[in-house]
């Protein structure tokens, strides 16, 4: 960052991106320079400000940008922007001496060696977990052997692998060799392999090489697994012992303390004189920018407002751009024009900036009118992408060490999106079902980007299994419509948002609803899935359709990863009688309805009638009940005195009827009205929806309970039985006999 005028820091999820930004700011402050910290929105810069407040450095920062932020800054100078009371204690005479900085340098050298061991330890643990999983699949496929062979010397694994490879070739060539000399060469080669095997391995019995060659090859492969596992476990134990003996945590703490002392002492030299902190006016931001920067060398803003934070001629020594993948080229350029040096921080594998269709159209018109290079195409590149394409030699640093997610969660992102370059520093303590998937039953459950079946699965099958408090759970979906439906049915206790809005955030547990019946390129987008999975610290659950997909993709790879690693992939037990309506169940529906009475031209109503009859027939406590279909409302009410004129006309119309009425056969009294609502016909805002609401109001006036069954919902049997239990005042339902 300090060796180049423009540099890029790639910060995958959980790799300490904000801490790195703070460290760069600290070095800028020590050097007596100024810095503008920007992002596409205030939330990213607020995160930096919160950390500055934590370390008592907020007196150095001016959150500016738009006019509201600037006015808030001006108003809060007296109460919030004063020197810390502890500033006098920041003076450390020792920190002024060259020896103090030399001690820090020596500590860095020591810790670099320790950190190298910690990184190797983390990598070894990743390798061990992957190898254990691979061995488990090998044993499931091949089975275990009665021959227990092992290496004579631990360091001979490469020789064992070469032996295994030679034996494989020997087995493949056995069927191809012919003629006297060919057979002779093959026999001699077999003898050589046996000799090498006995020199390398122990536990070989006399009959070991008298078996089928494929069995011998498998045994050698098993020996390779065992040898590599043993070597890794030994290495891990030695590294852990070494790191513990060298007190890595204590040594790291020393470096942090000494570095902080050095920084605070430098700040004391600049601000420690006993004087009040200057108070600036709104006009000073424009007319006295250098004086403002002397007191506030850290300015925070959005990229859009960067040039307007102070006088437009103000040039900062550095600009640090956070979340650069979400910054548009045009606003990013505004921020870039404010500084002599730029540090661009982002992650090309996370979500890019959103370009609305209207903006894309205007940008495309500009691109046609003027000869704009593709690398500057604002409609199709984020600022980060544009930097890569425009400055092909831009120096990059990848933050590799991951500290957020459980290893089994981030390992998917690491393998799929980061080329296994991340070093996973979190611990795996053997927690069960850290990552799981649940598939809904087949069917076209997605209606205008609302999937009620997935919502039912989340409410009834996922949330009850989580052992986290509601505020530590997040539910994400790719579409706003699904988010709105989830919020209405689950409430505000759980944080529910689109994947785009969840970028930069995290929760202990994340549930992802994929919504679609056939996963589209939008939902299967690698950046979207990467962000979704990496929001989860301890638990990730994917809720996905059970439909056979027409093409594979990233979500298919996630399911394959879950299955390969023996995590949980289950099929939802939530069913609906209306599932029979879907194309996938045509034959089953026809077979089901063949044996049932047809009461309507609509299969949805025929299915409802069959379900009601089945409930009443098979529950002993309901033998006194019966059901009637398409009962005109006026025949049920008789007396219209409780209704207004509009309701009276509606109820008196001969076409207004109840789909079904369950009644008491003994006293001919109504018990429960049931309406079957086709999803498309009864949508919110439709004329039919208004009639439904009027009918519900009328039934409520006359004390007649009503249960509406949408063809997009589920668990109709349970819902009807619960309502009947409540109405009949019975604690349980006796099965029919």
Unreliably modeled segments: 733-737
Largest sheet: 7 strands, parallel
Radius of gyration: 35 Å
Overall, the morphology is: flat
Question: Can you offer a commentary on this structure?
Answer:
Helix content is about 45%, strand content about 15%. The protein contains 26 helices and 23 strands. The relative contact order is 0.09. Helix 5 packs antiparallel against helix 9 (about 250-270), helix 6 packs antiparallel against helix 8 and helix 15 runs antiparallel to helix 19. The model is unreliable at about 735 (pLDDT under 50).
Can you give me a brief rundown of this structure?
With 737 residues, the protein is α/β, with parallel strands linked by helices. The protein is 47% helix and 15% strand. A seven-stranded parallel beta sheet has the order 3-6-2-7-8-1-9, sandwiched between helices. The protein has a six-stranded parallel beta sheet with strand order 16-15-17-18-12-19.
List keywords for this structure.
737 residues; alpha/beta; seven-stranded parallel beta sheet; six-stranded parallel beta sheet; 26 helices; flat; disordered C terminus
Layout of strands and helices, then pairs:
Blueprint: E1 6-10, H1 17-30, E2 35-39, H2 42-54, E3 61-63, H3 67-75, H4 77-80, H5 98-142, E4 150-151, H6 157-174, H7 180-200, E5 201-202, H8 213-245, H9 248-271, H10 282-287, H11 289-295, E6 298-302, E7 316-321, H12 329-336, E8 339-346, H13 357-369, H14 383-390, E9 396-398, E10 401-402, H15 407-417, E11 423-424, E12 435-439, E13 446-447, E14 450-451, H16 452-462, E15 473-477, H17 480-490, E16 495-498, H18 499-502, E17 507-513, H19 526-533, E18 536-544, H20 554-564, E19 568-571, H21 586-594, H22 603-617, E20 625-632, H23 633-637, H24 645-652, E21 657-664, E22 669-677, H25 687-701, E23 706-710, H26 716-728
Parallel strand pairs: 1-8, 1-9, 2-6, 2-7, 3-6, 7-8, 10-11, 12-18, 12-19, 15-16, 15-17, 17-18, 22-23
Antiparallel strand pairs: 4-5, 13-14, 20-21, 21-22
């Amino acid at each position: 960052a300090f060796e180049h005028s423009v540099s890029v820091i790639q910060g995958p999820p959980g790799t300490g991106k904000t801490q790195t930004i703070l460290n760069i700011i600290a070095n800028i402050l020590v050097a007596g320079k100024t810095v503008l910290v920007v992002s596409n929105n205030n939330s990213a810069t607020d995160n930096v400000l919160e950390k500055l407040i934590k370390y008592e450095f907020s007196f150095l920062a001016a959150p500016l940008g738009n006019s509201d932020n600037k006015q808030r800054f001006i108003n809060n100078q007296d109460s919030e922007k004063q020197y810390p009371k502890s500033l006098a204690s920041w003076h450390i005479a020792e920190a002024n001496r060259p020896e103090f900085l030399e001690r820090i340098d020596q500590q860095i050298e020591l810790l670099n060696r320790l950190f190298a061991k910690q990184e190797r330890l983390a990598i070894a643990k990743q390798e061990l977990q992957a190898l254990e999983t691979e061995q488990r699949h090998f044993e499931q496929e091949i089975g275990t052997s009665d021959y227990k062979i092992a290496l004579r010397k631990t360091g001979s694994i490469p020789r064992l692998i070469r032996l295994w490879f030679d034996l494989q070739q020997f087995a493949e060539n056995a069927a191809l060799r012919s003629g006297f000399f060919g057979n002779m060469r093959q026999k001699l080669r077999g003898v050589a392999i046996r000799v090498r095997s006995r020199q390398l391995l122990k536990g070989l019995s006399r009959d070991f090489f008298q078996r089928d060659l494929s069995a011998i090859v498998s045994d050698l492969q098993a020996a390779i697994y065992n040898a590599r596992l043993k070597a890794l476990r030994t290495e891990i134990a030695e590294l852990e012992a070494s790191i513990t003996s060298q007190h890595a945590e204590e040594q790291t703490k020393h470096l942090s303390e000494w570095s902080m002392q050095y920084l605070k002492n430098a700040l004391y030299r600049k601000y420690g004189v006993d004087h009040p902190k200057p108070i600036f006016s709104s006009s000073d931001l424009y007319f006295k920018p250098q004086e403002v920067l002397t007191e506030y060398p850290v300015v925070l803003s959005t990229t859009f407002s960067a040039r307007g934070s102070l006088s437009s001629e103000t040039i900062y020594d550095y600009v640090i751009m956070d979340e650069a993948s979400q910054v548009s080229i045009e606003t990013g350029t505004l921020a870039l024009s404010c500084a002599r040096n730029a540090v661009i921080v982002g992650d090309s594998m996370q979500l890019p900036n959103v370009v609305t269709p209207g903006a894309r159209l205007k940008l495309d018109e500009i691109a046609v009118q003027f000869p704009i290079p593709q690398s500057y195409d604002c409609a199709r590149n984020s600022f980060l992408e544009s930097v890569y394409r425009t400055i092909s030699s831009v120096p990059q640093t990848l933050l590799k060490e991951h500290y957020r997610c459980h290893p089994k969660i981030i390992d998917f992102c690491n393998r799929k999106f980061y080329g296994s370059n991340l070093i996973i520093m979190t611990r795996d303590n053997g927690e069960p079902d850290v990552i799981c998937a649940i598939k809904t039953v087949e069917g076209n459950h997605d209606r205008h980007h609302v999937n009620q079946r997935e919502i039912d699965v989340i409410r009834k099958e996922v949330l009850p299994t989580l052992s986290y408090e509601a505020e530590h759970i997040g539910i994400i979906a790719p579409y706003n419509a699904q988010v709105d439906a989830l919020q209405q049915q689950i409430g505000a206790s759980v944080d529910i948002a689109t994947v785009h809005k969840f970028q930069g955030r995290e929760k202990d547990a994340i549930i992802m609803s994929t919504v679609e019946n056939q996963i589209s390129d939008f939902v299967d987008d690698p950046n979207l899935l990467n962000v979704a999975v990496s929001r989860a610290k301890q638990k990730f659950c994917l809720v996905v359709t059970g439909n056979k997909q027409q093409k594979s993709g990233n979500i298919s790879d996630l399911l394959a990863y879950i299955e390969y690693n023996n995590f949980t992939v289950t099929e939802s037990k939530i069913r609906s009688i209306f599932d029979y309506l879907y194309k996938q169940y045509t034959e089953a529906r026809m077979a089901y309805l063949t044996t049932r009475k047809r009461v309507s031209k609509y299969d949805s109503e025929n299915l409802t009638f069959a379900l009601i009859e089945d409930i009443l027939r098979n529950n002993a406590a309901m033998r006194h009940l019966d059901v009637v279909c398409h009962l005109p409302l006026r025949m049920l009410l008789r007396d219209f005195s409780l209704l207004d004129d509009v309701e009276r006309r509606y109820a008196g119309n001969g076409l207004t009827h109840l789909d079904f009425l369950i009644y008491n056969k003994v006293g001919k009294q109504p018990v429960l009205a049931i309406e079957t609502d086709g999803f498309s016909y009864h949508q919110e805002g439709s004329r039919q929806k208004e009639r439904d609401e009027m009918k519900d109001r009328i039934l409520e006036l006359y004390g007649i309970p009503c249960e509406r069954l949408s063809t997009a919902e589920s668990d109709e049997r349970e819902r009807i039985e619960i309502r009947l239990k409540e109405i009949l005042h019975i604690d349980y339902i006796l099965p029919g006999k």
